[in-house]
Amino acid sequence: MAPYEALYGRRCRSLVGWFEVGEAALIGPDSVHDAMKKVQLIKDKLKTAQGLQKSYADVRKRDLEFQIDNWVFLKVSPMKGVMRFGKKGKLSPRYVGPYKILKRVGKVAYELELQVELAAVHPVFHISMLKKCVGDPASIVPLKVWL
């Protein structure tokens, strides 16, 4: 049975297989009952698989929350096409910074105090692009940014 048929309880009526509506009446009650059992079995298996995937995602989920004046690193790999930080390719840095958090914007976004070289980048970032700076941020050597 196709996933569409299992989900919606009817066959997908494409241009290739355009069947008449009256043809479905030729099926006996036993085959309809078997089909209903198969649909229920497929739905149960899909629900089980969805639950497993959710449990895997919940294990990897990080509940992050930063305070104002914390120091964080900024993930730069999504911005490869926009701006290059240091080397090109595999040796390019994954995170740059540290940057100071100025304020919280909404539930999952933070505004950072960026350098003058990064003036072209919007200062508000999603929490998934931030990594907490552990240690003294004054002892970290800043990375030279090439535009």
Automatic annotation (TrEMBL):
Pfam assignment, any one: SH3_Tf2-1
Source species, domain of life: Eukaryota
Domain (Tf2-1-like SH3-like) ranges: 70-134
Protein name, UniProt field: Tf2-1-like SH3-like domain-containing protein
Organism ancestry: Eukaryota, Viridiplantae, Streptophyta, Embryophyta, Tracheophyta
InterPro entries noted in UniProt: SH3_Tf2-1
Originating species: Solanum verrucosum
